[in-house]
Specification:
Elements lengths: L17 H5 L11 H4 L3 H16 L27
Length: about 80
Amino acid sequence: MSEKRPTVIPAYFDYLDAELLKRYLNYFGNIKPRNRTGLSQKQQAALSKAIKRARHLALIPFVTEYVDEGRAQRPRGGYRPRD
């Protein structure tokens, strides 16, 4: 597991605190799962609701633009047999 869990879990997730909410989003803008965040089910539901409210108010983006930084691309064009 390369991602570390946040050390301090807030008692309340405020949808106006965009910097706090961004810690619980991955590189592509998806909400991280409970096993990565270390939150309880109730806390994860409150986090999800706060992130959705912040997205609706355009405080955080719905998705981030994926920029390829020299990483190898998957071959396009379907299946290729091995030589």
